[in-house]
Every structure is written in C-alpha cells, then in structure tokens.
Specification:
Number of helices: 3
Largest sheet: none
Shape: flat
Structural class: mainly alpha
Strand content: under 5%
Order of helices and strands: HHH
Helix content: 40-55%
C-alpha cells in the first residue's frame, strides 16, 4: 500500500484516517513487520500449493558496460573534450546541456 498496492480513497471506511494508516504502514515497513507478514503469507501460499516453503529456482540477471579498450576514463574524457572543441570552432552547438 505504501508503493502502489491500493489507492488511499479505496481504503475501507472502518479504518482510521488515511494519515494514521500511513503512519502505521511506514512504521511497520521500517521495523520489518510488513516483510515478516509478506514472508509468512508467501510460505503459507507455497505450502497450500504443495510446494516447499523456499523457492526452488533463482534467476540472476546482470548488465555489463564495456569500458574503452585503451586508457579507460581518461581517453573518454579526452574524446569528449576534443568533440567540444571541434563544435566550438565550427560554430555549431549541442541541443542538450552539458553537466
């Protein structure tokens, strides 16, 4: 509910005001109560489905970025500086701001 679980105006009318519910959810997130509830429900659902409590498969995904073959960051910096100089000399400008 803190992320995108429910719209605040869709809360049942018999609950306390939204601000109170939000404070409690924030506290329960901070102290780990929500994680423990989630884990307990996860285990129960898996056991009801006849599966082991823990997941049987793990998927690991990674993303790698290749660096410049020679010189690393310095050569990249020199290349961008060179590009800036050539634009300045030619009178063209970039449409994006530089950081």
């Amino acid at each position: 509910m803190l992320m995108t679980g429910c719209q605040w105006r869709a809360l049942p009318k018999d609950l306390p005001p939204r601000s109170t519910v939000h404070e409690y959810l924030g506290l329960w997130e901070w102290d780990g109560t929500l994680a423990r509830i989630h884990h307990a429900l996860f285990v129960d659902v898996r056991e009801l489905a006849g599966k082991e409590a823990g997941p049987s498969v793990a998927i690991i995904d990674s993303q790698s970025v290749k660096s410049a073959e020679k010189g690393g960051r310095g050569s990249i910096r020199r290349a961008t500086t060179r590009a800036k100089r050539s634009k300045a000399r030619s009178g063209t400008s970039s449409s994006t701001r530089s950081a």
